[in-house]
Amino acid sequence: MTSLSEPFDAAAASAAYRSALDVISAVEPGVAGAIRAELADQRGSLKLIASENYASPAVLLTMGTWLSDKYAEGTIGHRFYAGCQNIDTVERLAAEHATALFGAPHAYVQPHSGIDANLVAFWAILASRIEAPALERAGARHVNDLSEDDWQRLRRDLGDQRALGMSLDAGGHLTHGFRPNISGKMFHQASYGTDPRTGLLDYDALRAQAREFSPLVLIAGYSAYPRKINFAIMREIADEVGAVLLVDMAHFAGLVAGKVFTGDFDPVPHAHVVTTTTHKSLRGPRGGMVLCQPEFADAVDRGCPMVLGGPLGHVMAAKAVALAEARQDSFRRYARAVADNAVVLAEGLMRRGARLVTDGTDNHLVLLDVSGFGLTGRQAESALLDAGIVTNRNAIPQDPNGAWYTSGIRLGTPALTSRGFGSDDFDRVAELIVDVLSATTPSAASSGAASKAKYALADGVCEKTRSAAAELLDAHQLYPGLSLE
Ligand code: PLP
User: Fold this and answer.
1) C-alpha 114 to ligand 1 mean position (Å)
2) Crossing angle for the helix pair 231-241 and 203-213, nearest 10 degrees?
3) Are residues 315 and 366 in the same domain?
């Protein structure tokens, strides 16, 4: 397997980046230095952050272009600015690739991020299910045509809707109706958890809760749930209670694109609306996207100006490039390897005595309960980082240490699989992780909250792990042949 799905011309990419850095350096050398340092950091660490990846040079280079300089509010064929023909081209290409890749009736590729994609989706659902009937009742074509009384009634109705999403400690995301995010201020929210005995989603309990709560939006999707979700059952539940099914596949879009999740586990044929990021397992530029059934297409296309400002032409162009890459057979092999590698990582950890939430994985991530090592997530994350292993701490279900210190570490395989790591490599990664955590002790010197952060690593462990990691990284170069010197 090649390390990236698309082979690239290393000499041409090296020349392009060297020239670009010269130009940048002449204005602000600090930025050029940070760009160089970031490549070195990415090359030199075992990146296991489940939400990160390495975009191809083609995707990255596409973003550094003058498509960034054009305003193009509106949608293709309905712009509020003149001269948008080239933005039309890239937006159309990105949407065509997205609909073909995911088999979706409609794609909206303007959202700047995952949070924006979810906001567009929420407001499109509210526009279709609450605003449109209100306009019809009032005999109005547009909100500006409503009387002040009808407008105030509509505003109250919009603010009186319910959403049901997965709880944060079960792996849900802040944008699924939680108070610190704007979605929690828009909706009355309730959350569903997982079965405390298995850590798995309990569809019967969810069905009962949905009947009781009667949400307008049932949200499926996660940041830290290590299992696949049956979207056919989710849709059945949504239909039963008259809810709109919104699936946020930000994390696992690459597994959907690569046909690892098919049938009942592919959200696209089952959900009314699907949102995603484009930069995680999908391996594109940082951004978001909405796919939807025809019923929601017009409302979704009003994302700008409903929620968004002018679209990022350079990023939509990079989405088109990334989606074209994801349509290659090589991306399917990549996605399969991401899931297979996660199983190897999970089994390697469990064989060495670690406890995993749900005792395994069937997606791209693993949630490791580090309390068995006597550590908090914060201590484990820091110790692993000292040893050159980049992860992030994450709450586990019913976490006694809360969302800040946590009891878990989330590990993902998309990035290292992009470098060409295979099953032997991931088994070695599991060994290194267990070695580091076993050699870490909470620091006895401190007390109170600080004791949840402080730790000590046995002598020599960092050096030993860093040198073992360097061997793995050397064997699987990031952007092989690309040189900035
Ligand atoms: N949805 C899910 C499930 C996520 O995991 C994330 C990011 O972590 C987002 C949405 C938000 O994405 P972004 O950071 O691009 O706004």
Assistant:
1) 5
2) 20
3) no
